[in-house]
Amino acid sequence: MDTxxxxxxxxxxxxxxxxxxxxxxxxxxxxxxxxxxxxxAITAGVGYLVLDGQPPLQLLPGDLVxxxxxxxxxxxxxxxxxxxxxDHARAEAALEDGGELAVGEPPATTRILCASxxxxxxxxxxxxxxxxxxxxITALAAPQALRTxxxxxxxxxxxxxxxxRALLDHVVNIMLIQLLRTWIAARDMSGRPPSWLRGLAxxxxxxxxxALHADPAHAWTVDALARQVGxxxxxxxxxxxxxxxxxxxxxxxTWRMEVAAQRLRAANDPIGAIARSVGYxxxxxxxxxxxxxxxxxxxxxxxxxxxxx
Length: 309
Prior knowledge:
Blueprint: H1 3-10, E1 14-24, E2 28-31, E3 37-44, E4 47-50, E5 57-59, E6 64-67, E7 73-76, E8 84-85, H2 88-96, E9 101-104, E10 110-118, E11 135-137, H3 144-158, H4 164-186, H5 196-199, H6 203-214, H7 222-229, H8 233-243, H9 248-266, H10 271-277, H11 283-294, H12 298-307
Parallel strand pairs: 1-9, 2-8
Antiparallel strand pairs: 1-10, 2-7, 3-6, 3-10, 4-5, 4-7, 6-11
Helix pairs in contact: 3-4, 6-7, 7-8, 9-11
């Protein structure tokens, strides 16, 4: 798998549709904070996203917006419209029946798909916290693949059938990948802190990260990794530090410990086998590296993560 797939899979990032909103009149909807990320797709009409400390953001048909921090916000027909709390129970019931959550007064002029993304809180390699507070992809800026996914969402909402909820959730997951691809390709990363995600925007660090993720158990050296990437040792070290924020060896250790932690949480493999799978021939050395990263030796980490204590 590639780097982005690896990180999202290990963190168990999953999207779930929360509502299909049909709004009309002088409408407003207040959405509370969520522990992951909030996502909205405007399938028809016009709305505004109102977020504390930021100017109102107009949303047009085909626009997509991701709030990576899941901050509380308002969706409304005008920036200062009165907003009522989002009713999760009514939204869920409407989705189950293949219907919409009606907001405001008929006739409905704006339709919005609302979703959220959640992840395993035990995963420590960040994704959402590396992104800006608001990611707004306009219909004009969206690539064809993203527009196609949005059209699929809109069609399914208009004509739901058996398995609609599963289909909507799958498409929302696809759209997260497409959103991240679009942002990586189109945004200037120089203003973002160094991270593995920023590293994906640079061809040298992207290739190096892919090699490390493809075989984390390999005894990588900077020289070997530089040869794999096709650059000098100095170039690789300099670029990795500026884009990823770590030396290649330190990033490899971080990723190995993330993989090991997930296996400790999810599987019953012996600790020695897990150590070898991430490149450690010495269980003692693995235990020390794991404790430095996660604050507990592997055995205690496994026990506490499963018992929640």
